[in-house]
Sequence to fold (302 residues):
Amino acid sequence: MVFDVGGTEIKYSVMDEDLKVHASGHVPTPMDSREAFYQTLEDLRAPYKEETAGVAMSLPGFVDIERGFVAYPGALSYNRNAFVGPELSDRLGCPVRIANDGKCAAMAEYWQGALKGCVSGTVLIIGTGVGGGLIVNGRLVNGVHFTAGEFSFLHHHPADWNNMQEMMACRCSTPALLSRYKALKGLPEDSPLDGREFFARYHGGDDKALEALEAFALDTAGQIYNMTVLLDLEVIAIGGGISRQDAVIEKVREKVNGLYASGPNAATGFPMRPPRVERCRFGSEANQVGALYLYRLSEGRK
Fold:
């Protein structure tokens, strides 16, 4: 059984190794206690207990995949410094494997999606922040403190270090795009605007929407450039709701290629190659698919 735990809801599936879904649904995520969280998972699995061999789970936070330990819980504060994997395994009477949601998405894309066949690549999940995961030399990078791939915390200007608005979460997220547009239009920050309305205006030829997306794509491309110079990444796969817009993928790709064609590369003739910028294959199912793949690997299957 596969769970995708978010700050708002828990999505679940009974999924086989061919990714065929035999049952699925969603319920609100308990926010009051870990006991309530565990009880919800136990109740959801009960009807499928006899037909499921174990549990694979994606959840927010800094997660030690090997030990099933949550060091930092993200939105689910009750999971701080908890051995969620082993505790759930004892409670459910089956193997339980847990991993960070962004890393699950990266593994889904590496297994069957946009990163399939590459040696090194990354997934950027653009939403309220920027999460994701890194695949380097064919292996998921978790990090000694389990924070590898927390792209939200990348900073644009160390000289302005205490300015939170210079972090990637505040420049390359969906809210950042909308905020930039509102500023360009002279709209109050609290004025109602969502992604659908923004892109309706963009496709309608709103010049400020065009300008906002250009700046957003350049900021995102700048961080991609830094990542690829450091790690020689072949593919950057962009996910999150915003990735459904062709304009986002095309603009980020255009800006990445532009940065590689100018600046240090052009001046020195250094033959660095730009990465491919692609859309993630798995949309809202990525976390579940990646959790299943990590479960399979932990059980010694490939």
Remarks:
- The chain has a mean pLDDT of 92.
- DSSP finds nine helices and twelve strands in the chain.
